[in-house]
């Protein structure tokens, strides 16, 4: 897709660039972010065209994970906007964009199971940026093939079931220093957590054949291996 045309004063809203060191850098960062969203929209539309003949399947794990990210973002951004926490809302939008860009690169592996989640995610992203970037949002909305104006669309609904985590990420410390992390089912018994931690290549390498003196596990929170 060709670059999106400039949208006037949108660059002066609170779209922050984490590396900006002045007003001009902030504007440049916002412009790059706009173009990134425009490319994501174009890539999603192209993937949908190329996959027009496939039979859609149920979400796989990757698609379900993306849907959770999308619905959490909608939930959080909505609350942040209502609470006038605009910087937090923008941070959530940046994180969602990163997740969608990553997912777009994985859809080609299994488009039947993943395309629907990507399409939903990109549509929700455009709705989230609409209050802050109305003109680019309308352009993206039209490119996605949506009828009517995005300003007339309802705020996206949130599936509360997708806000609940069934997995947790537990940091792993070795003698109090973080050495990695492990993703496990929520509520996994401590004995199984210990077994999985001790089988990790990084931990095996650091233990160098020695048995740990003690393993302290805070359920669903953190693992500390003492040697």
What secondary-structure arrangement, pairings included, does this model have?
Elements: H1 23-50, H2 61-82, H3 86-107, H4 111-129, H5 134-143, E1 167-174, E2 177-185, H6 190-198, H7 201-207, E3 214-218, E4 222-226
Parallel strand pairs: 1-4
Antiparallel strand pairs: 1-2, 3-4
Helix pairs in contact: 1-3, 1-4, 2-3, 2-4, 3-4, 4-5
Show unreliable segments.
5-14, 16-24
CATH architectural grouping of the largest domain: Orthogonal Bundle
Percentage of residues in DSSP E strands: 5-15%
Look at the structure and give the mean pLDDT: 86
Terminal Cα span: 56 Å
How would you describe this protein?
The protein is an alpha+beta fold and 227 residues long. The protein has two domains: 8-163, Isoleucyl-tRNA Synthetase, Domain 1 (Orthogonal Bundle); 167-226, Ubiquitin-like (UB roll) (Roll). The protein is built from seven helices and four strands; from the N terminus they run αααααββααββ. The protein has a four-stranded mixed β-sheet, with helices on one face. The chain starts with 22 loop residues before the first helix and ends with a strand.
Key traits:
four-stranded mixed beta sheet; Isoleucyl-tRNA Synthetase, Domain 1; 227 residues; single chain; Ubiquitin-like (UB roll); 4 strands; alpha+beta
